[in-house]
Structures
1.
Amino acid sequence: MSTQPHVVIVGGGFGGLSAARALRKAPVRVTLVDRRNFHLFQPLLYQVATGQLSPANIAAPLRAVVSKQKNTRVLLADVVGIDANTRRVLFSDGTLDYDVLVLATGARHHYFGKPEWEQLAPGLKTIEDATEIRRRILTTFERAERETDPDRIRSLLTFVIVGGGATGVEMAGAVAELARHTLRNDFRNIDPRKARIILLEGTDRVLPGFHPKLSAKAEKALAQLGAAVRTHALVTDIQPGLVMVNLGPKGAQKTEKLDAHTVLWAAGVQGSSLGKSLAESAGGQTDRVGRVVVQPDLTVPGHPELFVIGDLASCSGPDGKPLPGVAPVAMQQGRYVAQLIQMRLKGRPMPPFVYKNKGNMATIGRARAVAEVGWLRLNGYLAWLAWLFIHLMYIVGFQNRLLVLMQWAWSYVTRGRSSRLITEREATR
Amino acid sequence: MSTQPHVVIVGGGFGGLSAARALRKAPVRVTLVDRRNFHLFQPLLYQVATGQLSPANIAAPLRAVVSKQKNTRVLLADVVGIDANTRRVLFSDGTLDYDVLVLATGARHHYFGKPEWEQLAPGLKTIEDATEIRRRILTTFERAERETDPDRIRSLLTFVIVGGGATGVEMAGAVAELARHTLRNDFRNIDPRKARIILLEGTDRVLPGFHPKLSAKAEKALAQLGAAVRTHALVTDIQPGLVMVNLGPKGAQKTEKLDAHTVLWAAGVQGSSLGKSLAESAGGQTDRVGRVVVQPDLTVPGHPELFVIGDLASCSGPDGKPLPGVAPVAMQQGRYVAQLIQMRLKGRPMPPFVYKNKGNMATIGRARAVAEVGWLRLNGYLAWLAWLFIHLMYIVGFQNRLLVLMQWAWSYVTRGRSSRLITEREATR
């Protein structure tokens, strides 16, 4: 038992959990370390933020997921650093030796050198982010209901979402549906349908990773829901109740001031802080957003025992383009590393990691989505069904799948959202 | 419209919401005021605290509940006082005039003059209480897993629940099931089945409101689940990791020291603080636990326009005994007041309020419960089924009913609990 190599995986997201599960029959001891006691299905976090799902529906207790995997233990701990020379993971209250380390701690928001924007424009990465954004959105309608000044009401009912990637598009669609359908009969002084939802995107179209035709479809679907898209939009300042934007293509820019009580951030991510600690300790490099540059086999140069996967890894595809920070990349990398570890134990070589892109998809609200799978491009109802089944398939836990499906079916029929709780930021009782 | 009397209901719990709904066709304007934006089904709060249900499953957004009730508006506001002379409800940021006031703000914990115990032994009244208790219970197992000192492990795996009423019994059963079944395979260093669950009750038996035979059945069921009951137990001190108890009937008492990392409070409640403000302003009286003494028609003496219902009201049954602080009392009082208001408008009299006791029930875990309905006493599987259907029936929202039923069915079959999230106490982002 103790002579088996010790594989430590830091991070129980898509990458780390895939690696752990793929090692279940390997002759190694696995320790899965995470700060949190659950795996989070981040792609549906926006539905928690807009009251459609409960946090537990998109979370699976890590211990339950690997409870039958005898070679694996789970450790709830806060990793503060890596010592690559002594092969040790450093906790705030101890250390853990490893033979092989898989670092999969993901990414966090990136405010382009303006960390002070974070309080004003929260991003969506954790359960607490989601319940805080839900609290802000719902509280805003409540405040508008009690407000008498028309300008204040207009500002309270204006929602700005910064960043037109999949997260921003899904968030804008969900907020628009919440305002226009779910809440339509709930207030007596304000008309929630008059809420303005503005999606700001820096490039010339939303969903820049998709085919331009699908970007156009997404923009149209957003418009039908009542969410306005502004492309070539660069945020220059955020103040309480205020967003300053440079609008228009280069050479023809004008500055606009948006009075908006609620601003949400979906614009950029950077590698988690452990990446830097690892790079310093192991003599590796990080890219400009703090991700660790890895070799084709996902190791850190000079450290064959050190893997970095998922959003924390800076890794290029065969076309030289960096791989996107999405779940399928992380999962494939996790399984690749697990396989490589097992092949090494058998003394056999492994080809470099190659990402198999199975497609992109984004949903824009009830029965509206865009998807591309190879040369196939879908939009509307069919794309939405595809999106629905693929997301259901990848949620961990059979019970969660049923619960999510039921709540989606319910929302589809009634346009209701049952998880509209304003919980307190601090449970001080 | 504006000539119709204005009925203000403070509190959206069982009492307040029942009153509001029963007034839906009355020729009055109704304003339902609450600090929170949802109605909470408190009887199932212990299932949120033990990871079986999500907060949203037992909460219904107040606005959604009354959205189709045209004569009713919802106001999210913090009521800080009542001015009975000018007939005004006082908010932290304004006032609201009323013609009729229904005060239904419920109860909070009562630590018998030891408010410092609250931090060490939290009670279960709000969603935040439930997620905080869930956090404490789950974190305790995590700490035990990383601990090496056997005494510390023993203390970490000891759970003391103070108070053997329905809440305490249900909590003790749920914690025992969590430890012995749900978590049994989840840890590698500790055996969660060795957790000690101790239920302390001051009188000679648990569930003192029930028939003694059912108390005995409940105690036996708890023992089978691995929860120990100590009767004649009086808590004399609580310190971090420590509970001091006086045990045994009068004259034969001995003091015991319980090393327990987790202590939960289910022992006593007192009327919410508004009761006192009302009594002072209206010249009424409060009883020794701060509940407002009301007349047989639930009004405050000298103020026919002032009603107090639910846990905040001190009201006796025909036998002279005070009515218990349970949901059926509050709901019947809410409907009674709504009817009385309508009869008054027609100039017709109403008989005094009479509580129709339809029975008591408490569940002790999977397929175990006790129930009494009139002369009929049930225990075991049948009582549990009865408990299950009655609770499902009274949860507000058809979707919530389905979601709860599905999660119960799931837990019943697998003994799993999906909502085992340790969320952060303060969502600092």
Note: The longest strand of chain A covers residues 29-34.
2.
Amino acid sequence: MPKVEHQDATVLTDDEVRTLDAHWRAANYLAAGQIYLMANPLLREPLRPEHIKPRLLGHWGTSPGLNLVYTHLNRVIKARGTDALAIWGPGHGGPSVLANSWLEGTYSETYPDVSRDGEGMERLFRQFSFPGGVPSHVAPETPGSIHEGGELGYSLSHAYGAAFDNPDLVVACVIGDGEAETGPLAASWHSNKFLDPVRDGAVLPILHLNGYKIANPTVLARLPEHELDELLRGYGHAPIHVTGDDPLTVHRAMAHALDEALDRIALLQNSAREDGVTERPRWPVIVLRTPKGWTGPAEVDGVPVEGTWRAHQVPLAGVRENPEHLRQLETWLRSYHPERLFDADGRPVADVLACVPEGDHRLGATPHANGGVLLRELPVPSLDRFAVPVDKPGTTLHEPTRILGDLLQEIMKDTSHRRDFRLVGPDETASNRLQAVFDASGKAWQGIVLPVDEHLDRHGRVLEILSEHTCQGWLEGYLLTGRHGLFSSYEAFVHIVDSMVNQHIKWLKTSRELPWRAPIASLNYLLTSHVWRQDHNGFSHQDPGFVDHVLNKSPEVVRVYLPPDANTLLSVADHALRSKDYVNVIVAGKQPCFDWLSMDAARAHCARGAGIWDWAGTENGGEPDVVLACAGDVPTQEVLAAAQLLRRNLPDLAVRVVNVVDMARLMPREEHPHGMSDFEYDGLFTKDKPVIFAYHGYPWLIHRLAYRRTGHKNLHVRGYKESGTTTTPFDMVVRNDLDRYRLVMDVIDRVPGLAVRAASVRQQMADARSRHQAWIREHGTDLPEVADWGWNA
Amino acid sequence: MPKVEHQDATVLTDDEVRTLDAHWRAANYLAAGQIYLMANPLLREPLRPEHIKPRLLGHWGTSPGLNLVYTHLNRVIKARGTDALAIWGPGHGGPSVLANSWLEGTYSETYPDVSRDGEGMERLFRQFSFPGGVPSHVAPETPGSIHEGGELGYSLSHAYGAAFDNPDLVVACVIGDGEAETGPLAASWHSNKFLDPVRDGAVLPILHLNGYKIANPTVLARLPEHELDELLRGYGHAPIHVTGDDPLTVHRAMAHALDEALDRIALLQNSAREDGVTERPRWPVIVLRTPKGWTGPAEVDGVPVEGTWRAHQVPLAGVRENPEHLRQLETWLRSYHPERLFDADGRPVADVLACVPEGDHRLGATPHANGGVLLRELPVPSLDRFAVPVDKPGTTLHEPTRILGDLLQEIMKDTSHRRDFRLVGPDETASNRLQAVFDASGKAWQGIVLPVDEHLDRHGRVLEILSEHTCQGWLEGYLLTGRHGLFSSYEAFVHIVDSMVNQHIKWLKTSRELPWRAPIASLNYLLTSHVWRQDHNGFSHQDPGFVDHVLNKSPEVVRVYLPPDANTLLSVADHALRSKDYVNVIVAGKQPCFDWLSMDAARAHCARGAGIWDWAGTENGGEPDVVLACAGDVPTQEVLAAAQLLRRNLPDLAVRVVNVVDMARLMPREEHPHGMSDFEYDGLFTKDKPVIFAYHGYPWLIHRLAYRRTGHKNLHVRGYKESGTTTTPFDMVVRNDLDRYRLVMDVIDRVPGLAVRAASVRQQMADARSRHQAWIREHGTDLPEVADWGWNA
């Protein structure tokens, strides 16, 4: 942001007020027009029922306030040359943002058929809340947007995500007083403790108190002002109030407030950047109090509407049938004097556009809202430097996430000047054994630092706050503005962001269909501290269902990987970090885990996504008698141990071992881009042999993915079935029937003819299982792991 | 709570300080002992490696602070006869709460083998973080608990839920400074705007700032005190500070603070109850600052531990191998002087127990924490009074949720004196068309009221805040303390509480296995504004996956119902509201929907959970040619319309119509208590005929439920597949291939021999589909619905 000296209190000239008001009225007119009109958009003739849409749908209530903010952001951007991005938090601000981007021309540049003239205006109106048209909330289709309306709570964390490592950017974030009641929003106020005034941009929250939600007053609007101020100061902000319902007065106050806020931001940034001030800044927040549905009908059918919750959606509902409503609508629309706002062709007149900035400074045109255009490839180093050497499978142990930490450290180093890579997580980076990154970047922290603290860093790019919502929102905002990142979380608790990831996947799905949106970096999850390790936690920490949740969503976006060891984790992470427009979910353990594959083998295996591990099986050409399949680190270990037990005890049984890394490979080719053909599937799993599949999560997921396959009726899946508690790793697998002994018994039970022939082996397995459990009860630990696997040469 | 006059500032006698400190030291000793010892619990002999657990697991850091709170709550409960419940927010407070309930005797009363003597102490120690033992967080197994540790964020909303309609109860809620960073916790501070000082109890938040999370300082602990005070006052509280690391000083300060807080609570309640003061009270909050791992090792291996994040789990990690660590542990444990705290038999001495209250006043014994013992049956009136008359299926329309609203109104009325039923929702009660309840109870609101407001009520039992997390937390707390309720939500956004419902289901699953826990009322969801109606919303509002999420969890707890019309909704709701220990998910539309079943037929159908609608099919004895199955209101309508089209166009085809209300019926009997036998399933769906199943949500859910059935290979499911946008209801079903025309085409494609014979009918269907879509594009509305269904007589 250009350096700006502190200005005197803003005093708008009458002419400035007049043109700002013209812009605002034009936006209000267009917002109302979208809700009501499908013809006669400029009111060139008297309003008649046939001009009105057959279904009146949309949201007027929040629009006038958002229009005011947009108008005034235009003014200060133009006056100061500010590099700005706006986030529109109120859920149903669609009519307003669409109106403003049409006025500034970005809508027509993006969608040329909706031209900036009378004809385009009619299209703008008609498409709104119309079948196949645009929704009543901001969406990926909206120019200048990185934040979907609808589900509330994420505006402020998105704003901070956008501001990180964008030192010249001001992110204005309108927070509705409805949204302000949500948990994610409430938590994200404290994001200012993580915003670096030197290397990050600024976030200017604009808390818009129009007083009502759908049907209720809002909590914050009904706080006495001093109490609200205490709250905002407690959040670390300095409040600036703009209150009123007289447009001209509010214009003056809003202009003054925005100048004050931007001056203060510049001052705080200069202090930190030029004068080395390290005290956490007290950033400004604007509190804007204007009536809900401002300038709309004051009363309808004898009850107050403007300034009440009744203005939330469509203030006049019966316009086509009720002449009085039609008359009221016409009066309302004409109160903006469209004839003074638009010329003979329906184009906005010069006064209306006086405040609008030029080119990419327009809020609908900022490249930050189409982050893909700013995206640079992430420098992922060669994996060979981080790979663990594997001469023979299962002879060494590594903690996979710790190895990944080394890779992440290198990426963190290599991006230290570019500053376009961040690691986020809820206080778990070290717990998840990724702490090597701290040697390349500390943890962002603007709070007080004590001598005992470690790795806290004003300029750090590791973000840790105990709020999965805030982590997710930050990362989304960061990615959507063209940067890269990874979210590491305990597996069970990532469900906290189920609904957020839903919305992000929807965003990506829709964006991929918009040619003007450039691809952005994928949202990458590393889920660790997973269900199979409950040493001191327990049932509350067990949930492998995030994979199920994600796999319900658009297949073109979602990818799920379960690397079985350190090198496969490296390979999968490499792919995920380089990819675009996906949501990649990687599930990997942090506990010591056998190394199975060399780096080359891991690369080849991960590229296929699923394959036969012939060194672990006992096939001799021909079809196997049974397939032991596995996905996930713990199931893989149990399957390999089961294969060893079978080799030792039933040496003539032909066992195939198949490992699956990329879960979508199991799906039909028509249902997921990674899906295998039936030919390929049958080649791996056979058409008619028993398949014992040991899976990391809920077993029915495998059935849901593979139910169309020929061999599905022979598929027997073991997985997590809501059993377990605080216990040892081996006891966890026993309690869920995923252990090696159980798997061998499954083989014996399912291979035709084996039940009788191998009855004594089966009994040995049952005995070994019992012995192991008795040992655990007695000693509190597992028996030591086997060392001699007896692989094929 | 007994009326208490305001007291002078508390001054403890030296003797009181001494006995309080003895209790606290005993609790600290027991907390540390649980983490380390499996023998020699009373340190009667020198500590040797073999006394130490082989795996050191657990959490010391938060324990001393929680022990302090427990000790002092004991004191005030005993002194005042307060009826109190405690919620322990810090995730890993297990060692502390277990220690305290063992000291007060409730642990041994609940688990007699863990007796209050040396032998029991050894068992208490050994079971902790031991295979098959108890986790390091509070759990259902913990006496006095209604709040699981582990996943953080819900302590305060649980506390408010417990306090609603319990006017004599004080709920003390310890909030860790880690938890305080989460979104759900941050939102729930504003619960005080909904707490009625007259008819509800009090919540006393105790914000425990020990400064660190797992590996980071906490945000709130590093705020300057004046900023934290602003925040807490902004939340509507009056802060009382207790800070220190000198035990005796802190005891005096804590006693004073608790007396001050309880005096203030009594004063505020008296003002509201006796003097009619209606101003929202400024409730007290205690801010307790004590070191993390207080009284543990100050330094280990040369680095500071007490008062740092390093005290989070096990401060001395190498005790069995490292003699210095062993020595340090012994010094630490002996610093509490166990020989003065426990008698020769290992029983706590009188001084230790001096502060402990009697009987049910002990925190581990309060019946509020075992709500089932307080639960009264909910008075659900006869459904016949609310049923819609149905002479002939599909001839009248009703909004199902509006009919349910009438029933809820009656229940609300009938519980107006008992006050044990609440409706919660995120500002959607009216939007979800349940507004009839407002005639029986308004919406709880303690804020400022304006003349324009409607249905706000200081004593209301409808709770609306725009935070699904807070709604869920309130309801959970309310149910866990023995009351009833219903949560209504938009279907798509209920994913916001995915992780919370996970934890509640886990709680119920575990509780059901504990004979001492009495069953509580089920947690009932009404999901409406569902995926098939996107008139002005769009893709962001579409998600039917909560059903999938819930059906992953323990089958003994979860129930999912998709009633197809108003009367079936009544029947299902009646069952859900009367049931216990379940999570019931009901998905039902709020838009006008055809009435299919009379009340009697609906009751019979819902009792079966799935059944043949012979009036809609064209069977004539014998097996049908095809089965049209449906689950959900919109799919049912489309299937019935498809059946009508088939009857008209292919009159000799034998079509069976099956409707499924209770989704678990589709599961095998062995996997869910509601599961059908194969015999029953085959009787409904046949073994070998094509089944076209129109389902409300993701189609693969049906496969996942039915994959073991003989006829599974003939099952073809239509459902939601992530298509759709802002559009008409019919366009939504077309875009997802769930429409009547598509279903008829599916029948033609799948019934052997029909493809050729019915080619022209197939073409007619495709044409009708196109015509309908063209109409929608042109007019923005659907064609009018058919009226003549042509049912069987």
Note: Chain A is about 35% helix and 15% strand.
